[in-house]
């Protein structure tokens, strides 16, 4: 992780170019990461299995998290980890966003269920900071920034999944400036628990005279407890029994005229909520990387120990066995997944670095370039790496053979836990539609073509395959995609048929750029990096031509 951050991305030098981090250096970065790894390894990881097997418990509206979860969370926030990148004036440490991103990658790898609790904190902090009134900020901002109080994101309703325009929860204004919220929200991670003394609910609801659809939604803050100690009229009706994430309570929450305050302006609730959702989407991409890393580590360790048959070309004598890591079929699985993990880290860490550029760089042009990267790459990270977390964890389970299907080895939990990341914070299909239909086509692909040109210019000398593929994708976008989707009489369905393949092809291009950056970094010419690089070009990259062919087929008349 540190090699990618310091050597491949040269993060310390980049960060020192920002006024907020002029004194920042590699030693501080490494110290923070080492301490984070120690805390996660010693405090959070040991709770993973018991958290899965015991799970969160529901009893008449009360939710109890698995043994050790509350103590671990109290240690987590008191040590300052949730406040890593929050501003100093809000109780934070003011460190770069990339360190927070790497912390949450580690947490997801160690214990995905536990990590769901603080996973929304940063987004809630940014939402309140940028859209909350001075009164709300004085009351709640520091508590959320430090993690002393946890937060939820209450969007989904039983009849309204991804279509938030169908939300029916009502907010009725009161003479004292508050609003009474009534309605039911489902799939609320951490809607009720015993980890913290208070919970801050951020809730999408509709004012009485609001128009139908998404433009009629406003955002409200409803705490579990008010300042005087009274409890709000928010109740947990039940927690879901899920395929995975057993340690995280997924709640059905009922609001019975619960008093709260508006966050932001009337009818602009989605604008405020998207601050939270965009932060969450990067973190979900990091969940994918972390979960795949955890599965790979288990599979790699098992492959080194498990003795089975002589490997082809092995000097072992007849009748002797070799570690299965020596068998090509196993090396192929391990090297291909390693290729996804390492390239994903390059892309995710750069995205987090660009968030700091957006926030702190004095040059508007630099901020615009950083914003373009984050806008286009975030949905790719969320969709492609959560897809791979599930399929890759399943491939890692295959390394164990029958033992992988048995709970005792722990690998099957990663498969179960990873599956939900393809669904929440916007399904992966919605990420693909968001990328192509909302971010690429509206400006005639200007932003995307600029990004592709920047990637091509940033490729090291000799990157012939990656350079040719970037040009191929650029030409396709400009000469076929734009022409055929925007032609008179073009089917409005056409971009939606293309979206999944388009996102996947762009993900592979970004991986090719990342691997060329890694390969040309001093120190990468060792077996650990070469094996994953070869795994990428041999067993991952060929999918690019398949995705291009599938898009061509969709564009061709039937």
TrEMBL record:
Listed EC numbers: 1.3.99.41
Record domain Acyl-CoA dehydrogenase/oxidase N-terminal: where: 30-148
UniProt domain Acyl-CoA dehydrogenase/oxidase C-terminal: residue ranges: 267-433
SUPFAM superfamilies according to UniProt: Acyl-CoA dehydrogenase C-terminal domain-like, Acyl-CoA dehydrogenase NM domain-like
Domain Acyl-CoA oxidase/dehydrogenase middle span(s) in chain numbering: 153-257
Record flagged with keyword Flavoprotein: yes
Domain of life assignment: Bacteria
Pfam family, one: Acyl-CoA_dh_N
Keywords (A to Z) from UniProt: FAD, Flavoprotein
Keyword Flavoprotein: yes
Cofactors demanded by this protein: FAD
Function: Involved in the assimilation of dimethylsulphoniopropionate (DMSP), an important compound in the fixation of carbon in marine phytoplankton, by mediating the conversion of 3-(methylthio)propanoyl-CoA (MMPA-CoA) to 3-(methylthio)acryloyl-CoA (MTA-CoA).
Family membership: Belongs to the acyl-CoA dehydrogenase family.
Annotated protein name in UniProt: 3-methylmercaptopropionyl-CoA dehydrogenase
Organism: Hydrogenophaga crassostreae
């Amino acid at each position: 992780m540190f090699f990618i951050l310091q050597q491949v991305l040269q993060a310390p030098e980049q960060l020192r170019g920002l006024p907020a981090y002029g004194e920042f250096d590699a030693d501080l970065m490494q110290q923070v990461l080492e301490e984070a790894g120690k805390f996660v390894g010693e405090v959070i990881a040991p709770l993973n299995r018991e958290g899965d097997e015991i799970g969160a418990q529901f009893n008449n509206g009360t939710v109890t998290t698995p043994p050790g979860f509350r103590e671990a969370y109290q240690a987590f926030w008191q040590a300052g980890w949730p406040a890593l990148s929050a501003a100093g004036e809000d109780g934070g440490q003011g460190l770069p966003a990339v360190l927070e991103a790497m912390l949450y990658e580690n947490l997801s790898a160690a214990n995905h269920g536990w990590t769901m609790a603080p996973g929304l904190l940063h987004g809630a902090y940014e939402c309140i900071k940028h859209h909350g009134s001075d009164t709300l900020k004085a009351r709640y901002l520091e508590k959320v920034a430090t993690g002393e109080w946890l937060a939820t994101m209450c969007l989904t309703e039983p009849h309204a999944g991804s279509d938030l325009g169908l939300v029916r929860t009502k907010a009725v204004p009161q003479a004292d400036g508050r609003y009474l919220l009534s309605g039911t929200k489902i799939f609320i991670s951490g809607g009720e628990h015993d980890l913290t003394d208070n919970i801050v609910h951020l809730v999408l609801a509709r004012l009485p005279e609001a128009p139908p659809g998404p433009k009629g939604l406003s955002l409200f803050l409803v705490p579990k407890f008010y300042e005087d100690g009274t409890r709000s009229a928010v109740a947990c009706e039940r927690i879901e029994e899920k395929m995975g994430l057993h340690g995280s309570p997924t709640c059905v929450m009922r609001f019975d005229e619960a008093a709260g305050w508006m966050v932001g302006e009337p009818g602009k609730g989605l604008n405020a909520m998207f601050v939270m959702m965009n932060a969450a989407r990067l973190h979900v991409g990091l969940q994918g990387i972390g979960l795949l890393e955890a599965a790979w580590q288990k599979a790699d360790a098992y492959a080194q120990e498990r003795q089975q048959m002589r490997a082809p070309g092995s000097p072992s004598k007849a009748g002797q066995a070799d570690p299965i890591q020596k068998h090509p079929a196993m090396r192929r699985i391990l090297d291909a997944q390693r290729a996804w993990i390492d390239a994903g880290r390059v892309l995710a860490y750069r995205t987090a670095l660009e968030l700091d550029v957006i926030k702190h760089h004095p040059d508007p042009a630099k901020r615009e370039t950083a914003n373009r990267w984050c806008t286009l790459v975030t949905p790719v990270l969320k969709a492609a790496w959560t897809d791979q977390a599930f399929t890759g964890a399943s491939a890692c389970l295959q390394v164990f053979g029958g033992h992988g299907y048995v709970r005792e080895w722990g690998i099957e939990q990663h498969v179960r836990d990873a599956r939900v990341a393809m669904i929440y914070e916007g399904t992966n299909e919605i990420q693909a539609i968001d990328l192509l239909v909302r971010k690429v086509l509206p400006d005639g692909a200007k932003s995307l073509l600029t990004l592709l040109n920047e990637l091509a210019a940033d490729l090291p000398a000799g990157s012939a395959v990656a350079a040719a593929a970037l040009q191929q994708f650029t030409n396709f976008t400009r000469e076929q995609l734009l022409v055929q989707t925007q032609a008179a009489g073009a089917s409005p369905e056409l971009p939606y048929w293309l979206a999944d393949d388009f996102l996947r092809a762009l993900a592979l291009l970004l991986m090719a750029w990342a691997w060329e950056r890694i390969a040309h970094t001093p120190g990468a010419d060792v077996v650990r990096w070469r094996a994953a690089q070869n795994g990428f070009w041999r067993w991952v990259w060929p999918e690019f031509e398949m995705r291009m062919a599938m898009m061509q087929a969709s564009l061709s008349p039937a």
